[in-house]
């Protein structure tokens, strides 16, 4: 009788162990929460240099000094319900070379010109790093100077991904 009870308990322990192992595997290796992922593109290689959890409605801003007129520019992006990126607004003191027209509503507050309600959808976007322009990513309470995560003239790709948690943990995200 004791042997039968032991075998039954052992059988349930094995089933429970297999279920826990499967759940752990799924947690770590299936796509996890969406993250704003910044990838340094270096010729044939790609290195994730930042992975920051986001939700639908998350906003982040890239702030920089325009290379020609040497005045600040702020570009704000929004993560939409489908986890695409939208250029939501940008603000500047003087319209510099190469800034172009992105539509939206223009408001002037006495110092800044703000172009809002743009909603230009982007799957991803690229940015060339320059220490001269002092590019900084602001997301939540984080501030990341782009020149500190990629070399001068390095090409960064910004996108929202759903990467496995194990990958994010190895890359220093989440």
List the helices and strands and how they pair.
Layout (H helix, E strand, L loop, with lengths): L1 H28 L5 E8 L2 E9 L5 E7 L6 E8 L5 E8 L12 E4 L4 E4 L3 E3 L1 E5 L7 E4 L2 E4 L9 E7 L3 H7 L3
Antiparallel strand pairs: 1-2, 1-12, 3-4, 3-10, 4-5, 5-7, 5-8, 6-7, 9-12, 10-11
Outline of this structure?
The chain is α+β, with helices and mostly antiparallel strands and 174 residues long. It has two domains: 1-30; 35-171, no CATH class.
Low-confidence sequence ranges:
none
Total DSSP E strands: 12
Oligomer: single chain
Tell me the radius of gyration: 23 Å
What's the total helix number?
2
Termini separation comes to: 50 Å
In terms of DSSP E residues, the strand content is 35-45%
Main beta sheet: 8 strands, antiparallel
Mean pLDDT: 82
Shape: elongated
Helix content: 10-25%
State the order of secondary-structure elements, H for helix, E for strand.
Answer: HEEEEEEEEEEEEH
**Number of spatially distinct domains:** 2
Secondary-structure-derived class: alpha+beta
Structure report:
The structure is a single chain. This protein is of the alpha+beta class and 174 residues long. It folds into two domains: 1-30; 35-171, no CATH class. The chain contains two helices and twelve strands; from the N terminus they run H-E-E-E-E-E-E-E-E-E-E-E-E-H. It has helices at 2-29, 165-171, and strands at 35-42, 45-53, 59-65, 72-79, 85-92, 105-108, 113-116, 120-122, 124-128, 136-139, 142-145, 155-161. Strand 4 and strand 5 (85-92) form a beta hairpin.
């Amino acid at each position: 009788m004791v042997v039968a009870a032991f075998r039954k308990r052992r059988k349930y322990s094995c089933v429970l162990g297999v279920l826990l192992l499967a759940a752990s595997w799924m947690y770590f290796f299936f796509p996890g929460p969406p993250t704003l992922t910044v990838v340094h593109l270096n010729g044939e290689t790609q290195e994730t240099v930042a992975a920051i959890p986001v939700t639908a409605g998350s906003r982040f801003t890239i702030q920089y000094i325009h290379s020609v007129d040497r005045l600040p520019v702020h570009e704000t992006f929004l993560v939409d319900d489908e986890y695409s990126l939208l250029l939501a607004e940008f603000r500047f003191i003087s319209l510099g070379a190469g800034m172009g027209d992105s539509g939206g509503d223009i408001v002037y507050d006495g110092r800044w010109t703000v172009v809002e309600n743009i909603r230009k959808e982007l799957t991803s976007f690229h940015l060339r790093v320059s220490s001269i322009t002092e590019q900084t990513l602001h997301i939540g309470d984080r501030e990341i100077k782009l020149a500190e995560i990629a070399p001068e003239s390095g090409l960064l790709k910004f996108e929202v991904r759903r990467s496995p948690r194990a990958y994010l943990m190895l890359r220093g995200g989440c």
